[in-house]
Design goal:
heterodimer, A: alpha+beta, 7-stranded antiparallel beta sheet, disordered N terminus, B: alpha+beta
Chain lengths: 875, 474
């Protein structure tokens, strides 16, 4: 790094003018614009790095980007303490490239690590650029590197924060590029008088050479001692410093242009935000949604997070860990099949993920585990069951609901369902486990990306989810001791194994639990002692007994040799849903009732914005199902919407309180954020051909329509449908999104008009008065230019001609107001001349000699007066 | 300034060419956008498509904005009346926005200016032509903005302005939208008069005193400005007292009386544009500003810098004297007739009363003055003097010769004959004797250092230029 000895020299990279007085504004603005420009590009660099931060293992890269941006701005651009020379920058860039590319040699195949290396390379090169003294080329390179970082981040990061960061980056980038253009244009305007300035500088520096400077007031090429570099040197060494240009014999400079651009640069950001930003957004919106798509959207999150899914084996405390997270797992859109309206549930819904039959304890680690029976034959048909066709009477006793589920990427293949369910639509992305009423992904291995599926269910009636699920006929082999039908015989080893597992209970391990179950059983009268009643009594005990409390804080020390469920029932009496469920299942098995553990989600979080339910990780839940014979159903209970079976699974939820559902007030903000995330996911990240068609109808710009020229007709049709609020043909949902967005668009434009009007004062009045104002007389505009110039000079010292004032009246007034003969004299001559030209007869030619000399005299007098006033003001 | 019709080089047509080109940053932008678009399309990364959509929309907005603005923008140029070499002058540009709604932002105007007197533009072209940069930050719809530019031209001659190029990179500098206007009124010529020099007031008064009485006895008739001569139409600057009301009423336009003034000076200024053969020292002679001109068509081949500067000094002095004699402030000089003769291959002799048009004609002739070689100088001076001796006004007026040589150098030895002159013609010595006898000859030798010191106000000229350039008080 080089220490910068003369800070002022650095300022000349964008601000060549240093002389008085016309360059004051330019110099002031130049310094401010330069700092502003540096700041904007430093901000852009930091933002580019922050976009990368969302990827896994990319946090360090973001930190490097931010630190280099801050360092570059503070020490190189602002304080000008040190900077990296171009040669050093080239070396540093080469070293960075070698360092980052070396990772590629170790990894023969493409991997995320290679993308990390690319990101690192971008950030390191950007850091080198930030360490250099800035010029237009460096600024452009910084901008391009920010764009490349956005490209890399788009591959890494599909979270909504990418989209949210795009907005400030777009604004900062637009402002920075515009400012870069303005300062470059100002350099062009102001660079002409360089030779003049240099001569002045030289004349000040070498007084003895003044005579020669007088004779040749502008430096020539020979005098400057610099020759133009060859093109290859210019290209390679351009950043080393500007070459002196040949001073031409024709020079021009325009302070008025500088003032004009300075004034305009202050106004344009508001214009850009109000007009250009909407234009950019509209064009990019059309570009993104109207272009035909041939490729499926890539749903593999490069650096995104994969949620913990439900496995076939779950430890007792495992759900507690899952519930610490509030990440969204599922979004469920429930639709009433009859009305087509969104369906609302009243007391939440249970989404079953996995059914676990086997309970075991690893005594070495004192860990209890629920697991599913591992048997391939346990798998049911792969296609979801067809819809149950009820009798006409039964139709009114349940609600037919379609559930569309969007499941985030998870580590396991388990999906979630509301049982009993039936197929809806022609999709084959999920498989169905008949005896467990659970769904699973068709792919059992590999990455489990975000998936969307749908099914129909008759499990709801007036918002309430039924507790009963039909048991397949094969479960007839399983009988409880309270069965009134008696033993019917065994159907095979499998059923026996299942039956044995569902009722397996080791009484020696859980003596207290057994005692409790028997006590509760004793409290039930014999005539009421049915499976249903016993199960409900056990559930009620665990749920309502105040000795039990719900907590996610599992800090109780495990008692050696004691079953965790036994410890929960007899000692701790505190735990989360998995403990309560396990206790209930064991109590049921203790008295011979077949039971199993079900894990999944229970949620009632509803997004009013998106009209869907949200299941988060913290909604993970466990409950119990007990097998009940139809004959043991409570009196008067009719299970509707399902096939008539001999057995039904009864859902029992012994968890106290809301079953683990958090307070809704806490979820309002989360719901809004989730809605935004969902929109981002659905309409941006995963927008594909199907969704495009679903949301906007057939793409306007399909290859066929473009070839046939039909896209205009389609667009027209869509707009007509939108205007008439008429549903599009063939059930397409053309323009739904547009229709929903219309109020926002209109609101935005109203806001824009109000903002603009507020800034401009009476905007409408200006607009309406423009014509009349245009006709009004401008006292400064006269038929003869020289008099106009004279009036402009007078204006500088506060003498402004009134619209109704004659030249003679103005002269008299000036005499009264100013007693300066140096002004009055030439003004009198000019006034006389003007009167003669105007009223002396035919259009007269101007005696330029007199006019010019008097104008010059007047200008000098005015300049003296103005400078005198300024001096007085300073004193 | 010369009107466009006067020049053969003007293009009597309007040609507007639009051009839209990506800047370097724009190409980078487009490259990244295409990369993101192709990558997003092939691999199905929607975020890349979002990014490419934003980038492409920015480029599209840039293009449409720039295109609309540049098509709505118009420009008109206004030049000053007189332009002297070495003196800053101002060119005004009126930028117009014809649009109803769209404002024009950050409009740059590039006006080409080229020295038409350059002999070989390919050798020193970069010094003989330049581009005037002006900008207008904001022009509201249906309105105009006046912006100006200071110019400084150090070499006399004729300069061609135009075509004008309007361009804007607004808003993001990704694309430059430009319009090249090759229009009749924008293709103007500027005649840059030779640079004015600062001379001692005392010397000028002495010169004027020497010329007194050259026009005959002083007399004032009927209290006015001389003897009634006739009627003529009204011209700017005429004294209202001269209006002949009766005639004006009859003609329905003002007519003024003309007076013959017999009591005033008559001066003939002869400019010898040839170089001094004995000059070779670059530092000799006083060098007023504006004379360090470039290689011109008017400069003979083989001319040294010093001799060339001397000739330009002579031209500048002639310009200064002409300007003083013909300015309105010089009324006290009571000059009746002024004749200027420029010694060159085709001698220019302009005889005039004091009026604006004559001043302009004389200054233009001085701007176009061709520098002659030393060999031709004597012959051309002799030829010019011969023409003047046949001119009635020239004969009786006071003769001022501005030359790079002394009188003795010009006359040569008494026995020397003018071999190149026709036998019938009189020698230069004989011709000058007409004025010498009447003591009406003033010979100014600008190569004489002592004489220059007596004439020029050394040290002030540069300061005046310097302060002019920076807009400060002189």
């Amino acid at each position: 790094m080089i220490r910068e000895t003369n800070a002022a020299d650095g300022a000349k990279s964008t601000v060549p003018g240093k002389s008085k007085p016309w360059s004051d504004d330019f110099e002031k603005f130049g310094h401010r614009a330069e700092n502003h420009l540096n700041f904007q590009f430093a901000l852009l660099s930091a933002a580019g790095g922050l976009v990368l931060a969302s990827g896994q293992g990319m946090q360090d890269i973001a930190v490097i980007a931010v630190i280099s941006a801050v360092f570059g701005f503070v020490f190189v651009d602002w304080l000008r303490i040190a900077y990296l020379p171009p040669l050093g920058a080239y070396v540093a860039m080469g070293a960075a490239a070698l360092y980052c590319v070396s990772d590629f040699w170790d990894m023969p195949q493409r991997s995320d690590q290679q993308m990390v290396s690319v990101a690192m390379l971008l950030v390191l090169v950007q850091a080198v650029l930030m360490s250099q003294r800035k010029n237009r080329r460096i600024f452009e390179q910084l901008g391009v590197f920010c764009l490349l970082e956005l490209v890399v981040a788009a591959i890494f990061n599909d979270a909504i924060n990418y989209g949210m960061l795009l907005i400030p980056i777009g604004l900062v980038g637009g402002w920075a590029f515009s400012l870069l253009g303005i300062t470059s244009a100002m350099e062009d305007v102001a660079s002409a008088p360089r030779g003049v300035h240099r001569s002045v500088r030289d004349s000040n520096a070498k007084r003895e050479d003044r005579e020669s400077a007088r004779s040749g007031e502008l430096l020539t090429q020979k005098e400057s001692g610099k020759v133009q570099r060859p093109w290859i040197a210019r290209w390679l060494l351009a950043p080393l410093g500007p070459t002196d240009q040949i001073t031409p014999s024709i020079q021009s400079w325009s302070p008025q242009s500088i003032d004009s651009m300075v004034a305009a640069s202050r106004r344009w950001p508001r214009y850009a935000v109000l007009t250009l930003s909407p234009a950019v957004l509209v064009v990019s919106f059309v570009y993104f949604y109207a272009l035909p798509r041939k490729v499926e959207a890539n749903r593999t999150p490069g650096g995104g997070k994969t949620l913990v899914g439900f496995d076939d084996q779950i430890r007792l405390e495992q759900l507690g860990h899952m519930m610490q997270s509030s990440d969204t797992a599922l979004r469920l859109r429930l639709t009433n099949q009859v009305t087509g309206e969104p369906y609302r549930v009243t007391q939440g819904m249970y989404l079953r993920g996995r059914v676990l039959e086997k309970y075991s304890v690893d005594w070495s680690n004192q860990v209890a585990t629920w697991s599913a029976l591992e048997d391939d034959t346990n798998r049911g048909t792969e296609i979801l069951p067809i819809e149950y066709v009820p009798s006409s009477r039964e139709k009114n006793l349940y609600d037919s609901v379609t559930v569309a589920v969007s499941c985030e990427a998870m580590s396991r293949s388990a999906l979630f369902a509301i049982a009993p369910y039936h197929r809806s639509g022609n999709q084959r992305v999920v498989t169905h486990w008949e005896d467990r009423w659970t769904l699973s992904r068709r792919e059992s291995e590999g990455s489990f990306d975000r998936i969307e599926y749908r099914f129909g269910t008759n499990a709801f009636f007036r918002g309430l989810q039924t507790n009963w699920i039909e048991a397949p006929d094969r479960d007839n082999a399983i009988f409880g001791p309270y069965s009134r039908r008696g033993f019917r015989g065994r159907r095979g080893k499998l059923d026996v194994a299942i039956a044995a597992e569902l009722t397996k209970f080791e009484s020696t391990r859980m003596p207290n639990l057994r005692q409790l179950a028997l006590q509760l059983l004793d409290q039930i009268p014999d005539r009421k002692r049915t499976t249903y009643e016993i199960a409900k009594a056990f559930e009620k005990h665990l749920r309502d007994d105040p000795r039990y409390s719900y907590t996610l804080n599992l800090d109780a020390e495990p008692v050696s040799g004691m079953d965790p469920i036994e410890q929960f029932v007899s000692l701790d009496r505190r735990g989360h849903c998995q403990y309560f469920g396990s206790a209930l299942a064991m109590m049921l098995r203790c008295v011979g009732i077949p039971s199993r553990m079900v894990v999944g989600y229970r949620t009632d979080e509803y997004s009013d914005l998106g009209e869907y339910y949200i299941a988060r990780q913290r909604h993970a839940h466990a409950w119990v199902e007990a097998l009940v014979e139809r004959s043991e159903l409570p009196n008067g209970l009719a299970i509707n919407g399902q096939r008539k079976r001999d057995r039904y699974w009864l859902r029992l939820d012994p968890t106290p309180g809301q079953g683990g559902i958090p307070n809704q007030r806490d979820e309002q903000v989360d719901t809004v954020i989730d809605f935004a995330k969902n929109v981002w996911k659905e309409y941006v990240v995963e927008m594909d051909k199907e969704r495009q068609k679903e949301s906007f109808g057939d793409s306007l710009l399909t290859s066929d329509s473009v070839a046939n020229g039909n896209w205009l007709l389609k667009l027209k049709q869509s707009l007509t449908n939108l205007a008439m609020r008429r549903p599009p043909a063939d059930g397409e949902r053309v323009g739904n999104a547009l229709r929903e967005a219309a109020p926002f668009v209109i609101g935005f434009f109203v806001l824009a008009v109000v903002l603009y009007g507020g800034h401009r004062g009476s905007w409408w009045a200006r607009l309406t008065n423009r014509s009349s104002k245009g006709k009004s007389l401008d006292p400064l505009k006269t038929s003869h230019e020289f008099y106009s110039l004279a009036l402009q000079q007078l204006q500088q010292i506060g003498v402004v001609r009134r619209p109704d004032e004659t030249p003679e009246e103005l002269l008299r007034r000036t005499k009264n107001e100013l007693s300066d003969e140096a002004i009055i004299g030439p003004l009198k001559v000019l006034t006389d001349h003007f009167i003669r030209c105007c009223y002396g007869g035919r259009a007269a030619t101007v005696d330029a000699g007199t006019v010019d000399s008097n104008l010059e005299t007047l200008r000098q007098a005015v300049t003296r007066k103005v400078s005198g006033r300024e001096n007085e003001g300073r004193d | 300034m010369q009107s466009p019709q006067d020049s053969k080089t003007l293009v009597p047509r309007t040609s507007i060419r639009h051009r839209y080109g990506l800047t370097r940053l724009g190409y980078h932008f487009l490259f990244v956008a295409l990369f993101a678009m192709i990558g997003g399309s092939i691999r199905g990364f929607n975020l890349l498509l979002v990014l490419s959509g934003l980038l492409i929309s920015v480029i599209l907005v840039q293009w449409r904005c720039g295109r609309a603005m540049i098509r709505l923008a118009g420009v008109a140029r206004r030049l000053p009346q007189d332009v002297f070499a070495g003196r800053p002058f101002e060119i005004h540009y009126l930028v117009t926005n014809r649009g109803r709604w769209l404002p024009v932002w950050m409009l740059q105007i590039k006006d080409q200016i080229k020295n038409l007197s350059v002999k070989n533009p390919t050798i020193r072209g970069e010094r003989s032509q330049s581009v005037i940069h002006v900008a207008a930050g904001f022009v509201a719809p249906k309105s105009s903005v006046d912006t100006s530019c200071h110019c400084l031209i150090t070499a006399r001659g004729r300069y061609q302005l135009g075509p004008v190029r309007l361009s804007t990179g607004f808003p993001f500098s990704l694309m430059e939208s430009a319009k090249r206007i090759d229009r009749h009124d924008l293709a103007a010529q500027v005649v840059v008069y030779p640079g004015l020099v600062e001379i001692h007031r005392r010397w000028f008064e002495d010169l004027a005193l020497a010329a007194r009485g050259s026009g005959g006895p002083a007399a004032r008739v009927n209290g006015l400005d001389g003897e009634f001569f006739g009627l003529r139409e009204w011209n700017s600057g005429d004294n209202p007292r001269w209006i002949h009301w009766r005639t004006s009423a009859r003609l329905t336009e003002p007519a003024v009386r003309q007076f013959e003034q017999t009591n005033r000076r008559e001066i003939t200024l002869v400019l010898d544009c040839s170089e001094n053969p004995s000059s070779g020292n670059p530092s000799s002679g006083n060098q007023p500003p504006g004379n360090k001109s470039i290689e011109r068509e008017t400069v003979p081949s083989g001319a040294t810098d010093a001799s060339h500067v001397q000739v330009e000094t002579a031209i500048s002095l002639a310009t200064e004297l002409s300007n003083r004699f013909l300015s309105r402030d010089a009324r006290s000089l009571e000059l009746r007739h002024f004749v200027i003769a420029i010694c060159q291959q085709h001698p220019v002799i302009i005889e005039t009363a004091r009026c604006r048009n004559a001043r302009k004609e004389i200054l233009t002739a001085l701007a176009d003055a061709v520098v002659e070689t030393p060999e031709n100088g004597k012959l051309l001076l002799q030829r010019t003097m011969g023409s003047l001796s046949q001119n009635q006004t020239g004969r009786r007026s006071h003769l001022i010769v501005v030359s790079t040589r002394s009188l003795s150098q010009s006359l040569g030895q008494p026995d020397e004959t003018d071999v190149e002159a026709p036998n019938s013609a009189r020698t230069l010595r004989q011709l000058l004797a007409l004025w010498q006898r009447r003591q009406q000859l003033t010979w100014i030798n600008v190569s004489d250092e002592n004489e220059c010191r007596r004439i020029f106000r050394a040290g002030e000229t540069f300061q005046s230029v310097e302060s002019k350039v920076h807009g400060g008080p002189e």
